[in-house]
Amino acid sequence: MMNSESVTGFVPPVYPYERLASLKAQAAGLPGGMIDCSIGTPCDPPPPQVVAVLGTSDSERGYPASAGSVAFREAAAGWLQHRFGVHVDTETELAACIGSKEFVASLPHYLKLRWPHLDTVLYPAVSYPSYAMGASLAGCRGVAVPVDHRFCLDLDSIAASDRERALCLWVNSPGNPAGGLEDLAAVAAWGRRHGVLVASDECYAEFTWDDKPRSIVEHGTDGVLALHSLSKRSNLAGVRAGFYAGDADLVKYLSECRKHAGCMVPGPVQAAATVAWAEQDHVTEQAARYRKRLEQLVEIAVQAGAQASLPAGAFYLWATAPNGDAWAFADLLARRCGLIVSPGEFYMADSTKINQSQTAEGVGSPDPCKYVRIAAVQPSDRLQLVKQRLAAVSGE
Q1: Taking the complete model, does pTM exceed 0.85, yes or no?
Q2: Could you tell me which residues come within 8 angstroms of residue 188 by beta carbon, excluding any fewer than 6 positions away?
Q3: Containing domain of residue 362, as a range?
Q4: Is 72 among the domain residues?
Q5: Domains: count for the chain
Q6: Is 251 left (phi over 0), alpha (psi -120 to 50) or beta?
Q7: What is the spatial distance between Cα 143 and Cα 158, in angstroms, rounded to a whole number?
Q8: Which of 271, 281, 267, 266 is nearest to 72 (CA)?
Q9: Are residues 98 and 41 in the same domain?
Q10: Are residues 272 and 286 located together in one domain of the fold?
Q11: What three-state secondary structure class fits 338?
Q12: Final residue of a domain: which of 256, 277, 298?
């Protein structure tokens, strides 16, 4: 066994949500317990017809197709056609992945193998932590791109020196944590103009409130990849099923690499996912639930002294903490009403990596340390309990 003191390479950081343990302990002691809105874990039941297929597919014995069965790929492509009006070739432009997070974290590694002269991953400065972690796990530079007041990419701020070294640019729309909607046509055009792959994480597309759902492949597949998942759309985070679609050359390359790596969505999951992609009514119902809960969360945040409004998309409330102190606000919510939220710094790039060189003097990304993210993943009755607890404390 190696002596841990001899390790000088990459040391994984503490997983952000593990830092909430002390707050959860406080909240758990309240009558009625904790209401955890820190992580975007669906709480609602998945479609019963999808769950039924998991046990009846008769696909357990054989190895599943790494790129996805014909039925899986046709169902996913059919959904793209239905939701976005986009046709993709199921043989060359679409393949399965084991949920979206696995793909996010592994993409830079495979791209680095393909383009060893490049070493940089561009990602939004306020974003899902796995974009930066994927760069680290691949031994690449992670360069955070400043975001504007809507928490959308400031493409003009990307330095030429970083563009020239870029393996890819990540875009997330609707965005996590702030729910912003990107101009995907502009992002795709930027990538093509500079020869940079644009990887578009669209796992919240079904929950677009201020517009209709959008995908980057609406603007062509050349030089782009769109990433989708059943985790949020169909409450199937536990089965790990998603797909990526776009540039035919890259889809072929990635699917071959992933085949050698043993990246396979299990056969029963592929069979169930085929049913889920083809069914839309349950998604419409889920969107209505999330919209109602977001409205409740706005009332709760304002009642607790924060500034908050409905997001343009996704199912997170990105609220400005009183006095701009997110950790103090998270502690107050845990103690007074048992609500667990995520401080905004969980979604903040390392400040030493944020490229501010092309921004106007004194202008940069908004400070996420002033915000908390509240996920609408608890039933309405549990959120009502939060409101009641806050009212009781206010009345003391």
Answers
A1: yes
A2: 198, 216, 219, 220, 223, 224
A3: 15-45+281-394
A4: yes
A5: 2
A6: alpha
A7: 9
A8: 271
A9: no
A10: no
A11: coil
A12: 277
